[in-house]
Amino acid sequence: MKYIYILAGGAIGSLIRYWVSELVSSKYPTAFPTGIFFVNITGAFIIGLLFGLFTVNGQLDDKLRFLLFVGFLGGFTTFSSFALENMRLLKDGFIFTSLLYIVLTNIIGIGLAFTGYFLGLKLK
C-alpha cells in the first residue's frame, strides 16, 4: 500500500511542480532559473514545516510520510532539474548566474527548511 501513497503523492507533486515552475518562469523570464528555484526553496520550507508539525511531535504515521514526504515533496522538488539548469547555465557561459543559483538555492533552501521547522513547532 505504501507504493500507492508514494505514487499518488509523486504524481500530484510532479504536476504541481510543472505548473508552478512554468507560472513563475513566465512571470519572471531571466537567465536565472526562477521557476525551479522557487519550487525548490518552497519545497524546503514545506518539508521543514511538516517535519516540525508532525515528526518531532510523533504524530506522523507511515501513510502521511509516504504520501507527503516521499511522494509529494519528492515529486515537487527536484535535484535533477536543479542540476540540469546549472549545466545549461555553465554551457551557455553564465558562470556567475550558475554560482549564484547554487549558493542561493542551498542557503535559502536550508534556511527555509529550518524556518518551516521552527514554525511547525510553534503551531503545534
Outline the fold blueprint:
Layout: H1 2-27, H2 34-55, H3 62-76, H4 79-91, H5 95-123
Helix pairs in contact: 1-2, 1-3, 2-5, 4-5
Description:
The protein is an all-alpha fold and 124 residues long. The protein has one domain. The chain is built from five helices and no strands. It has helices spanning 2-27, 34-55, 62-76, 79-91, 95-123.
> Which structural class do you get from the secondary structure elements?
mainly alpha
Number of strands: 0
Structural domains: how many: 1
The helix fraction, in percent, is over 70%
The fraction of residues in strands falls at under 5%
Question: Cα-atom Rg, whole angstroms?
Answer: 16 Å
Global outline: globular
Distance between the termini: 29 Å
Order of helices and strands: HHHHH
Low-confidence stretches: none
Total helical elements = 5
Largest sheet: none
Mean pLDDT: 91
